[in-house]
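Task 17 of the worksheet. Students: predict the tertiary structure of the chain below and write it out as structure tokens. Keep your answer in the requested format; marks are given for formatting as well as content.
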Amino acid sequence: MDNLPPKHRAFIEQMKSGEDFELRGFQLLLERSNFDAFFEALQTHGLFDPERNPGPVAGEKAGYYRLPYWPPLDYLEAVAKRAGERADGTQIDKVLNVVRSVSNWRDVNNKPRDNYTTWYKFAGDVPISVEIGRSSAAGLDVMLRRSAVQELV
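Model answer:
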């Protein structure tokens, strides 16, 4: 994080100030050609922390719920895809560590966070992108998919 200019540090801090700021921040990062250069800074500042992955929220009607979209998902997918294209094993491992961390996270009642959008992305887009760039990731991809499916059952 120390290698980022103060302007970039302030940008990342601003992303942490609210859901809308976080979503827009990830969208703006993805417009940059060097979006993947921010991965470690975002991770250091906790934007990939598993507890940030939202669970069900009560809907407008009684008895209904909605699942908010976790803003880092598209960013993680793009970083995984780029790492796969570049066969960057180090970056692939960093993305997979986020996937593992979120997949293994439990609340105080030892329950996983129930967000089908996150599991869908992890079971499909993110690991598949990684698998393209590194054949040894295929076994981990299957393991992560099996883990995510077992969590949902």
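Marker's comment: The CA atoms of residues 76 and 95 lie 7 Å apart. Helices lie at 6-15, 19-30, 39-44, 72-86, 89-104, 116-123, 125-133, 137-152.
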